[in-house]
Amino acid sequence: MSYQFTIVVPVYNEEDNLLRVETELLAYTKIATRTTKILFVNDGSKDKSQQIIEDICNRNPEFSFIAFKDNRGLSAAIKAGFDYTETELVGYIDSDLQTAPNDFNLLLEHIGPNDLVTGVRANRKDSFVKNMSSKIANGIRRSFTHDGMDDTGCPLKVIKTDFAKRIPMFKGLHRFLPAMILLQNGTVKQIPVQHFPRVAGEAKFGVWNRLLGPLMDCFAYLWMKKKYINYEVAKKD
């Protein structure tokens, strides 16, 4: 089958969620507006995630995986997923499934004239502390990047793969995807999507790395923006 869209699913110690991921993403492939495949990126999990991933891939041709030798963090997993994508479009969803795979169709409706379409979590089903820390972190990031995005932490995005592959690797990347597309003179759009409580596993980010981490990353982004090289080829033989 010729695929048009790859969904990257970073995984770190999510053994209790993966069978649900299989069920929901397999169901999504049946209604997806683009022919869709799924790429697991196992970020050095210490539990049984890798064996479950391999079982899923063995019984479903739509699923494949890459596995890190060691834990390298969410940003590295997302970037590796982009690097190993071969389809025209690439998406990203967290393995906790607090966002709905079906909402990819909402984002895909708008990807034509845009280079990145990101979800905005409506009626977030997180704790007060998590919601407030995310709101503050998004405010800090917007003041540095001026990307106009309300919720860059939303784990539901669609990007044109040629843009995704040009994003440089750095820790905190997942918070700056729209800003990195804008650095390439690309266009971005945000669309409200559903949000659900986590039903299994544990959150990988706390208040500390939702606030201090983004602040430090903002300074790294400003340095990168100043040094960023952007070019277009006018002609070649």
Keywords:
alpha/beta, 237 residues, globular
Task: Report what the structure shows.
This protein has 237 residues and is an alpha/beta fold. The chain has one domain (5-227): Spore Coat Polysaccharide Biosynthesis Protein SpsA, Chain A. Helix content is 38%, strand content 17%. It contains eight helices and seven strands; from the N terminus they run E-H-E-H-E-H-E-H-E-H-E-H-H-E-H. A seven-stranded mixed sheet has the order 3-2-1-4-6-5-7. Helix 2 links the parallel strand 2 (36-42) and strand 3 (63-67). Helix 5 runs parallel beside helix 8 (207-227).
Outline:
The chain is of the alpha/beta class. It has eight helices and seven strands, in the order E-H-E-H-E-H-E-H-E-H-E-H-H-E-H.
